[in-house]
Automatic annotation (TrEMBL):
This is Malate dehydrogenase. It comes from the Bacteria. NAD(+) binds at residues 11-17, 105, 112, 129-131. It is an enzyme of class 1 (oxidoreductase). It catalyses: (S)-malate + NAD(+) = oxaloacetate + NADH + H(+). Residues 156-323 form the Lactate/malate dehydrogenase C-terminal domain. Keywords: NAD, Oxidoreductase, Tricarboxylic acid cycle. Catalyzes the reversible oxidation of malate to oxaloacetate. The gene is mdh. It comes from Luteipulveratus halotolerans. GO terms for biological process: malate metabolic process; tricarboxylic acid cycle. NCBIfam families: MalateDH-SF1 (TIGR01759), PRK05442.1 (NF003916). Its EC number is 1.1.1.37.
Length: 328
């Protein structure tokens, strides 16, 4: 279509934004034939830096970039947007408890949910990358009663991609050989990357690896703690890979998942796999015509059950905290 798709990005002057905006503008999200218009939200003190980023977008002369607007008022920036990528969030400061962190982020994601409810396009799809992503998505969704809850999601695609990369390294396969990876639960250290349904060149990954000790002692912690390993090495948190995963997530949501494969998205539970209804938790999903569906009927063994339950319990704790705070 030649009508531009309007994509909002929050935290646009941040580290992820610096990578994400150029990928979107260059056509990585919806292809070379689909113009996009960027709507960039920042807090007031970061608007000057954002103006510099916009100068660089101009200087890139991207043929698919139909326009850029910036601002600090979500009801203006989100006006008519089709995709909202909510990246900006409040990081955990020194001495900050989990409850303080959730409260500070409630101050961001509740008003943004309300603004989306008021002014976004009818087909709005919301992806939350800013941490704690799942619960921030729940806060935004709860504050947008007129938008179907299925239009809110949180990013676990980076975990999914990390899980594929680690499995490829272990098995000597290429990432393209790996299908049906699943991240279950929360985007946090409790997340569960599931090899029992993943396939390497059509072969069951857990059977191929056949090493429960590696799975439990190396694989799961390596994927779950990859963010910390990157901070340790780079002195800064993952930014380009997080931007790339945000693109993968939004593109698959708009354009669909490949036949014979699925992806991981944190979406509102309908009670599937005994994840309490209403929680935004990561599941295996397929996407067709812009709508996701949780993959049904996977057998969950005792080991996987324990891992999924532990992560879901953490999500329930976060939900209870934000409920007590009156944020949902
Ligand atoms: P930065 O601190 O570089 O950038 C965040 C930006 O958000 C800042 O420019 C800030 O001014 C802006 N911001 C703050 N409050 C805002 C508001 N109310 N409205 C609009 N903008 C606002 O962080 P960056 O490295 O870009 O990371 C952004 C978020 O992604 C963090 O919460 C981070 O924890 C999270 N991540 C999530 C990942 C995931 O897989 N879900 C992985 C990467 C990353 O850790």
């Amino acid at each position: 279509s030649t009508t531009p798709i309007k994509v909002a990005v929050t935290g646009a002057a941040g580290n992820i934004g610096y990578s994400l905006l150029f990928r979107i503008a260059s056509g990585a999200l919806f292809g070379q034939d689909q113009p996009v218009e960027l709507r960039l939200l920042e807090i007031t003190p970061a608007l000057k830096a954002l103006e510099g980023v916009v100068m660089e977008l101009d200087d890139s002369a991207f043929p698919t970039l139909a326009g850029v607007e910036i601002g600090d008022d979500p009801t203006k920036v989100f006006d008519g947007v089709n995709h909202a990528l909510l990246v900006g969030a409040r990081p955990r400061g020194p001495g900050m408890e989990r409850g303080d962190l959730l409260e500070a982020n409630g101050g961001i994601f509740a008003p943004q949910g309300k603004a989306l409810n008021e002014v976004a396009a009818d087909d709005i799809k919301v992806t939350v990358t800013g941490n704690p992503a799942n619960t921030n998505a729940l806060i935004a969704q709860s504050n947008a009663p007129d938008i179907p809850s299925s239009r809110f999601s949180a990013l676990t695609r980076l975990d999914h991609n990390r899980a594929i990369a680690q499995l490829a390294a272990k098995t000597g396969a290429t990432v393209a050989d790996i299908k049906k990876m699943t991240i279950w639960g929360n985007h946090s250290a409790t997340q569960y990357p599931d090899l029992f349904h993943a396939e390497v060149k059509g072969q069951n990954a857990a059977e191929l690896v056949n090493d429960q000790e590696w799975l439990e002692g190396t694989y799961i912690p390596t994927v779950a703690k990859r963010g910390a390993a990157i901070i340790d090495a780079r002195g800064a948190s993952s930014a380009a890979s997080a931007a790339s995963a945000t693109i993968d997530h939004a593109r698959d949501w708009q354009l669909g998942t490949a036949e014979g494969d699925w992806t991981s998205m944190s979406v509102v539970s309908d009670g599937s796999y005994d994840v309490p209804e209403g929680l935004i938790s990561s599941f295996p999903v397929t996407v067709k015509d812009g709508e996701w569906t949780i993959v049904q009927g996977l057998e969950i063994d005792e080991f996987s059950r324990g891992k999924i339950d532990a992560s879901v319990k953490e999500l329930e704790g976060e939900r209870d905290t934000v409920k007590k705070l009156g944020l949902i």
